Amino acid sequence: MAISNTQALGKSPKPGAFRFKLPAEARIFMVLLGVALIFELLGWIFVGQSFIANKERLIVMILQVSVIGIIAVGVTQIIIMGGIDLSSGSVVALTAMVSASLAQTSDFARAVFPTLTDLPVIAPLAAGLLVGLVCGLINGTVIAKTAIPPFIATLGVMVTARGMAKWYTQGEPISMLSDNYAAIGAGINPVIIFLVTALVFHIILSYTRYGKYTYAIGANRAAARVAGINVNRHLILVYTVAGLLSGLAGVVTSARAVSGQAGMGMMYELDAIAAAVIGGTSLNGGLGKITGTVIGTLILGTMTSGFTFLRIDAYYQEIVKGIIIVVAVVADQYRQRNRRS
Amino acid sequence: MLSLVPEKPLTTAPSQPPVAAQQLLIDVQGVRKAFPGVVALDDVSFRLRAGTVHALMGENGAGKSTLMKILAGVYTPDQGVYRLHGREIALTSPLDALENGIAMIHQELNLMPFMSIAENIWIRREPLNRFGLIDHARMYQMTRELFAQLSIELDPQAKVASLSISSRQMVEIARAVSYNSDVLIMDEPTSALTEHEVAHLFRIVRMLREQGKGIIYITHKMNELFEIADEVSVFRDGHFIGCKQVEQLSHDEVIRMMVGREITEMFPKTIVPIGEVALEVSHLTLDGVFHDVSFSLRQGEILGVAGLIGSGRSNVAETLFGVSPASSGQIRINGQPVTIDSPRTAMQHGMAFLTEDRKDTGCFLSLSIQENMQISVLGGDNLQAGFVRQQALDAMCEAMSGTLRVKTPNLDERIENLSGGNQQKVLIGRWLLTNPKILILDEPTRGIDVGAKAEIHKLICKLAGQGVAVIMISSELPEVLGMSDRIMVMHEGRVTGIVDRADATQVSIMTLAAG
Q1: Cβ-Cβ contacts under 8 Å, A227 against chain B
Q2: Same-domain pairing of B128 and B240
Q3: When you count CB atoms within 10 A of the terminal residue's CB, does the N or C end of chain B come out lower?
Q4: B183-187 and B102-105: which strand pairing?
Q5: Chain B stretch 318-357, residues whose beta carbon is closer than 8 A to a beta carbon of chain A
Q6: Cβ contacts of residue B106 below 8 Å, gap of 6+?
Q7: A288 inside 8 A of chain B by CB
């Protein structure tokens, strides 16, 4: 602390006490660069080509984690507020099913709703977002009103939403979607949607009351209440926003695949939590940035691309991913402890 | 002093030569313990003799609890010598203390609710059968024998969760006795007991005394002191004041030893015009916590609230501010009856509440000073098209921390990195930004240094001068006496008196607080 004080006063730091302090996101960005460089090096050694200097690979790298990224923007807010959301992956599946069912063309004889075909693209989009919003609203309301741990409440919604996704068409996939709907997920659109979402919520978290209350509740819920914040209402609001973003992720997923399947979004919730945590969001609440989460998401994408590039089995990928998540959390705890002492 | 000891039969202790030093179970000399910003104990000595009940008395914050925690191995002293049976020891943990024959019965009960009584008592020492599994039958038998010895009538197989608070206390005591400890430390053991149960407890205590054990008994209650204790040590402000035989003491002498000091600190109390009634509370009740609290408060007035910890003073403040809404009674603000069901509504009525515990209910430790200070004013004029007007807010915070002299070069610093006094100033700043008409301060100067204390006192007086109605809860009698226009005293959830500044003395307040 003494160090940053002297810097702030514009005095020269004491000799020996100097320590260059980067913002947390810059450190995570260094990790991203480090990971990319390792793959670059291994690339030249084992594959004989560059990992980074390949535009297509870079696009795929971001594209494959865009949906995770959209979810992670919501999950980051929940974790900053001191909560957790396990339901996002299942909400993606349920949303994908519902919105896909309203995006079918009349060319298809066995549409889910034969009378509701060839609808304008706004219909499936709005329905999907609404499904996500309702799921988030349920999460938030249950957590706020019954005071059961978020882990349990969202676990319940996770299982239920997955069940509903399967029940919706008795397990049948939904196909023959309109071109306009498919366009939502075409090309680099998911990347654009992800980055715009991240930017919007970065601004909201930094410059609005919504953001300030989110940090305050995560930092100290009891103090937030005494300071006059309607904590329960804010809990519901943030879970609803996160649900809405999961819904958006579901729409993008089904649009990109041009189908709806009940198995979509499997384990996405864990990838999203991992992206947030790797990006420096503290599971203790009160700390975290959307920018960090974006970089965390890119780290996940880089690793997936890197392993594929090196033609290493997907199994190893999962093993290493697991280890990295734990290391990220340990690093977070360690950082917290250092601050305190 | 020593004459007392040989009169007691030492039934369990082996026959020892009657040398005084060996009758001393505990002999602590020159102990010092400091916490950041506070010296909790300074050069304190304490002796416990076998076969006596030794009471510890003093105001809140006098250092009793710290001493007790050092004796029980919870804290390690910074300085000083700790002798047990004449041998110098350094305890490393409560478990270590237990193994050295020192058992503590905590004020906060430390039982595992979903395990049986017997499991709670014999945990870590469960009797095993020949397969190495726990022998429940024998464990229950051992518990029954222990209970018979203490005439406790409880089913060893019952779950602790199903027991009343007093029964749990009995289980705690039985557990302490089961360790065959030489020293038992009891921290206000009767606070949750009925009269009948207190009598039972005292029978147990006397029996243990007959067995030659030393019992350290912490209490605020005068009548208990005279009923059960042989000796009493009095503490004040972290210093050891004296140790006396109880039979040589009178009630008034004990109180004088406890409050003793003159008001040496200067309080900048200024006499300001008292205005209209701002707050009127009648028959306010929170079931099971406090009852029938009535008082009124005028603009410019400082109402001090005194009482021991657990007297309900902080609970009244929490209820006024809507943290735990009242079960009955009426609150009027500026003559209008109001319902306060959340801190938010309280704020809408112009109230502000600085809580007792900065860490638990005040600071957002991971956030900056600025974010901490402005959290309660992120609305109204400070919002523009949904965005907070950050520059205006920053300027307000900058000005406020200048007024309050918050010592930090940078408001972006995390509040965690500030000293207690400066954290307190930031929290006071948070409430002042809301421009309150009624300001409730719960322990506004706890754990902060003298300089900052004086500044906060000055500020409170200045606010009163501006017509703010102030309620100030404090455990420090000189502060209450020095700052208040009137003092409300509470004891066990009831108001025992409201005293005018002119009539208030330390002794009169302490007498009311002791019930």
Answers
A1: 343, 375-376, 430
A2: no
A3: N
A4: parallel
A5: 321, 323, 342-344, 346-347, 353, 355
A6: B172, B187
A7: no
- Asked if B113 contacts B161 with a C-beta cutoff of 8 angstroms, the reply is yes
Shared domain check, B131 and B8: no
Residue A128 contacts residue A283 (beta carbons within 8 Å)? no
Percent of chain A with pLDDT over 70: 92
Q: Supply A99's token pair.
A: 């919105």
Same domain, B330 and B427: yes
The DSSP bridge pattern shows strands B183-187 and B214-218 to be parallel
Chain B residue closest to A220 (CA)? B364
Q: Which residue bears the tokens 């904590």? A: A231
Q: How many domains does chain B have?
A: 3
Structure tokens at B135: 């022998």
Residue A21 touches chain B, beta carbons under 8 Å: no
Q: What's the full length of chain B, in residues?
A: 515
Q: Is A19 on the interface with B (CB under 8 A)?
A: no
User: Does B371 reach chain A within 8 Å, measured CB to CB?
Assistant: yes
**Whether residue B505 sits in one domain with residue B431:** yes
Q: Does residue B156 share a domain with residue B203?
A: no
CA distance A223 to chain B (A): 4
In this structure, what CATH number is given to the domain that contains residue B55? Answer: 3.40.50.300
- Domain boundary assignment for chain A: 62-336
**Average confidence score pLDDT of chain A:** 89
Which of A220, A221, A339 should be substituted to probe chain B, the one whose Cβ sees the most B Cβ atoms within 10 Å? A220
pLDDT tens digits for B451-470?
778 888 989 999 999 999 99
Residue A19 pLDDT exceeds 60: no
Of A207, A284, A286, which has the smallest distance from its Cβ to B364's Cβ? A286
Least Cα distance to A221 among A329, A151, A147 occurs for: A147
Model confidence band, residue A337 (pLDDT cutoffs 50, 70, 90): low
Q: Which residues of B are less than 8 Å from A209 in CB distance?
A: 378-379, 383, 388
* Mean pLDDT to the nearest integer, A271-299: 93
Work out the angle between the directed axes of helices A290-309 and A268-278 (0-180°, nearest 10). Answer: 110
Chain A hits for B343, CB-CB cut-off 8 Å, are 225-228
Residues B168 and B201 in one domain: no
In whole angstroms, how far apart are CA B376 and each of A6, A171, A222, B316, B373? 30, 50, 14, 22, 8
Per-residue model confidence (pLDDT) at position B236: 84
What is the domain extent for residue B505?
277-513
Residue-level pLDDT at A128? 97
List of chain B residues with pLDDT < 50: 1-22, 262-264
CB contact under 8 A, B408 and A5: yes
Q: What angle do CA B135, B141, B147 make, to 5 degrees?
A: 135
- CA–CA distance from A338 to each of A79, A80, A282, A341 (Å)? 21, 20, 14, 5
Structure tokens at B43: 């050069």
Domain assignment present for residue B265? The answer is no
Please give the angle made by the CA atoms of B339, B341 and B345, to the nearest 5 degrees: 80
Predicted pLDDT of residue A27: 83
Give strand pairing partners of B231.
B54, B245
Same domain, B304 and B374: yes
- Among B380, B483, B476, B363, smallest CA distance to B428 is for B363
Picking from B212, B228, B259, the residue at the C-terminal end of a domain is B259
Q: Are residues B419 and B297 in the same domain?
A: yes
DSSP-derived letter for residue A12 is P
Angle at B375 between CA B373 and CA B379, to 5 degrees: 125
pTM given for the model = 0.77
pLDDT value of residue B22: 46
**A69-106, pLDDT tens digit by residue?**
999 999 999 999 999 999 999 999 999 999 999 999 98
Type of residue numbered B159 = K
Of A215, A225, A229, the CB nearest to B367: A215
CA distance, residue B345 to nearest chain A CA (Å): 8
**Residue type, position B485, single letter:** D
